[in-house]
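lol forgot to send this yesterday, sorry. struct tokens for the thing we talked abt
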């Protein structure tokens, strides 16, 4: 580090390494944690299907006075298992859209169809209403409305709304390149470490110092905001009215924040270890050089 050029170049390389380490950590977390498997796991662990059922029951009950259809007509045919399947399909389709594709969602529920038909038939029979084409259209409209509401309430990550507003197509451009970003940032980090080694050939242990400092700083940069977000329970302040959507987003953001925090702690710890190793072996290098 006595050479001025070597020192300045090492400072520049270590600064670049900080950003490469951060990019590596973020891209790795994005690649491994932002996917349908993780999102469905969160939905299951947080019992989001039960929250969807509860909200559907409340909605149909509130609408019963206007529609004339008791909530039980719908809810007796809707259970957590059925809703859980729709939630998972919505998540799968959301990530298909992020990858530039799409898939159909099967909302069919024979029991629900039968319940709606039975209600309309019983009501028509009670008032001697003719079951003509107009009657059939009313039954069909009631079914379509029920499935529309179920679909909307089960889209707990609001992929449909995000796609409609063009957000998914924009995010897709970044999401589909996560593997490239991850590979590139990790490769860049390795290259920078090699450059640091070449810049400090006269004292190879200095590479440990520069790499350790970069890793420590990257860890601190990542740790500070994540610790604040978790300590203040920041995500709980979101004003999202529907419980299933609130739970889905806050749980996912909390999971990602915790993952980033743990990774930052790991990076900082690795940096401290490298610096300690440098301090231990540096005198030996000097002694052997003498």
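and heres what i got for the seq, position by position
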């Amino acid at each position: 580090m006595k050479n001025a050029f070597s020192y300045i170049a090492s400072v520049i390389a270590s600064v670049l390494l900080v950003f490469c380490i951060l990019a590596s950590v973020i891209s790795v977390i994005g690649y491994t944690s932002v996917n349908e498997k993780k999102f469905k796991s969160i939905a299951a662990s947080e019992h989001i299907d039960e929250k969807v059922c509860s909200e559907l029951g409340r909605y149909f009950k509130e609408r019963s006075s206007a529609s004339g259809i008791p909530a039980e007509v719908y809810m007796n045919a809707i259970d957590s298992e059925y809703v859980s399947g729709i939630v998972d399909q919505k998540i799968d389709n959301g990530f298909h859209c992020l990858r530039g594709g799409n898939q159909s969602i099967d909302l069919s529920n024979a029991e629900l169809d039968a319940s709606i038909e039975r209600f309309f038939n019983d009501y028509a029979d009670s008032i001697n209403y003719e079951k003509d084409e107009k009657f059939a259209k009313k039954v069909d409209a009631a079914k379509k409305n029920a499935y529309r509401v179920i679909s909307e309430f089960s889209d707990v990550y609001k992929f449909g709304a995000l796609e409609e507003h063009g957000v998914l197509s924009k995010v897709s451009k970044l999401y589909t390149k996560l593997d490239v970003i991850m590979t590139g940032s990790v490769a860049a980090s390795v290259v920078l470490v090699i450059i640091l080694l070449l810049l400090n050939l006269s004292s190879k242990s200095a590479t440990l110092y520069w790499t350790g400092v970069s890793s420590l700083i990257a860890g601190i940069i990542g740790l500070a905001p994540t610790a604040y977000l978790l300590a203040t329970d920041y995500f709980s302040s979101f004003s999202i009215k529907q419980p299933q959507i609130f739970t889905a987003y806050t749980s996912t953001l909390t999971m990602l924040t915790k993952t980033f925090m743990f990774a930052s702690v790991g990076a900082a710890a690795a940096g401290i270890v490298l610096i300690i190793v440098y301090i231990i072996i540096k005198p030996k290098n000097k002694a052997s050089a003498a």
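Confidence is low (pLDDT under 50) at residues 285-290. anyway ping me if u want another try
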